[in-house]
Structure to design on (81 residues):
């Protein structure tokens, strides 16, 4: 994913994917940073909010996790309509 980001630093999907890989590898701070960047680049990317919520929950920040999960749900519902 880092190569994809290097080629296109505005690609939110690549940041989201790299965040998933970082989280799976146990690098929680890097995952949080990548999910936040993905959201910054594409604020309608529900998956990035959901993934960041998972990281926030892991970090014990339940308030922010709840906000991220709520936003992911709102965006998902908007897509369904």
């Amino acid at each position: 994913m880092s190569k994809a980001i290097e080629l296109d630093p505005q690609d939110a999907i690549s940041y989201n994917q790299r965040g998933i890989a970082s989280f799976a590898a146990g690098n929680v701070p890097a995952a949080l940073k990548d999910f936040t960047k993905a959201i910054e680049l594409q604020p309608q990317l529900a998956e990035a909010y959901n993934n960041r919520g998972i990281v926030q929950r892991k970090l014990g920040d339940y308030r922010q996790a709840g906000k991220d999960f709520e936003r992911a749900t709102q965006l998902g519902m908007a897509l369904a309509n």
About this structure: The chain has a mean pLDDT of 94. Residues 2-80 form a domain with the Serine Threonine Protein Phosphatase 5, Tetratricopeptide repeat fold (CATH 1.25.40.10).
